[in-house]
Amino acid sequence: MRNKVLVVLSALVVLALMVACAAPAAPAPAADEGAAAAEATEAPAEETAADAAAEAPADGEELNFTTVVKIAGINWFNRMEEGVVAWGEENGVNANLVGPAEADAAQQIPIIEDLIA
To answer: Which residues, other chains included, contact 69 with Cβ-Cβ below 8 Å and sequence gap of 6+?
Structure first.
């Protein structure tokens, strides 16, 4: 009998926690939403011109996108490389995937440094 009571109480506690976690977040005050919306509409307009100039490649220069993975040569990352290359072809950029032969973060560092240089 005692075990049944503990099981039922445990189940009720778990159920209460699940309901509490699933509850929607409390809405923010309306004044904050208006101010945040005004800032959000103003900020992109200011940043767009600067970002476009910073992101645009120089004349005749190609954009290069490189994904550095944990380990090269395994099926997961081989399939990922196919997608990266296909995306690059679709978007007119040079996209590739590189990674070390062994899963070692220390081996990723020189790869990233070479890409930056």
So the answer is: 77, 80, 97, 98, 99
Q: Which of 97, 92, 90 is nearest to 111 (CA)?
A: 97
Q: What is the CATH number of the domain that holds 94?
A: 3.40.50.2300
- Identify the three-state secondary structure at position 85: helix
Neighbour count for residue 72 (Cβ, 10 Å)? 17
When divided into structural domains, the chain yields a total of 1
Q: Which residues pair with 64 in a beta bridge?
A: 94
- Check if the beta carbon of residue 95 is closer than 8 Å to that of residue 88: yes
Name which of 99, 107, 96, 106 is nearest 71 in CA terms.
99
Q: Which two tokens stand for residue 15?
A: 């159920």
Helices (H) and strands (E) in the chain, counts: 4, 2
pLDDT tens, position by position, 66-86: 999 999 989 999 999 999 999
Q: Dihedral, CA atoms, 91, 96, 97, 99, nearest 10 degrees?
A: -150
